[in-house]
Amino acid sequence: METTNKGSRSPLDPHVSKVSLLDVDMNVSKVFAMARKRPITVFRYRSPYAVIVSHDTWVCTTKPSAIVPLRSPLVPLNDAIEHAQQTQAWSFGLTAVFPRLLLEPATIARALMLQVLYSIPTEATLHDQLTFNRAFRWFVGLHGETPVWDSGPFVQDLRTLLEDDRAVELLLELLQRAMPVITSPESDFKLNIALARAWALRHPRLDKRVPSQASHDGRLFLMPHPGPSVA
To answer: Can you give the residue ranges of the Transposase InsH N-terminal domain (predicted)?
Structure first.
């Protein structure tokens, strides 16, 4: 039986754009140098396995579909809440808190949704995730080379929004609206229901509407009331 001698392999052509996983294993530095000039597709068992691109190419990508795959649960989640965040009810509900925020209310609300949906333990960790997680950045509206906001103002806005009972109410209604996406078998969410309920329990106007468990109609965060919604 013929054996393969790694040392006898031909030198890697510096002009190719496709390499094998073994090529990467044997020529890591060379492959990375090639990737600074053009994307390099890595094949495993003759099938595409990964693509190596330079940092400059990565951060300059502007097409959302190139950053966030269509199969990502954040895509249908965005579709589920985008219209609601553009309604008059949403804007009116944030009238009181808006002047006290440094960033857009919709951006802060989306960041808080990520914290609940992925069980991110602290505000600092959430800020770190928005520094390098391209899907998270896209979801909150950061594209391309746009730097993440400074930690101080960002954390301040998170806390300011959560201090407003109407803002919390709207945020939890958004989460409830998105439950079909959140509970989909294809999603990778790790929903922290206790954290979302804790936000409501801080406010006397909302605490009695927080269910101890899911209600008969599947509401996890707040029981319904006769007032206006974000629909």
So the answer is: 100-151
> Could you tell me if 80 and 162 lie in one domain?
yes
Here the tokens at position 173 are: 């209604």
Whether residue 139 is found in the same domain as residue 169: yes
Phi, psi (5° rounding) for residue 49?
Answer: -115, -40
**DSSP summary character for residue 9:** S
pLDDT tens for each residue of 61-111: 555 555 666 678 999 999 999 888 888 788 888 888 989 999 999 999 999
Measured CA to CA, the distance from residue 198 to residue 71 in angstroms comes to: 31
Nearest residue to 101 (alpha-carbon basis) of 124, 109, 89, 115: 109
* pTM, two decimal places: 0.69
Domain that holds residue 78: 69-208
Task: State the CB neighbour count (10 A cutoff) for residue 186.
Answer: 9
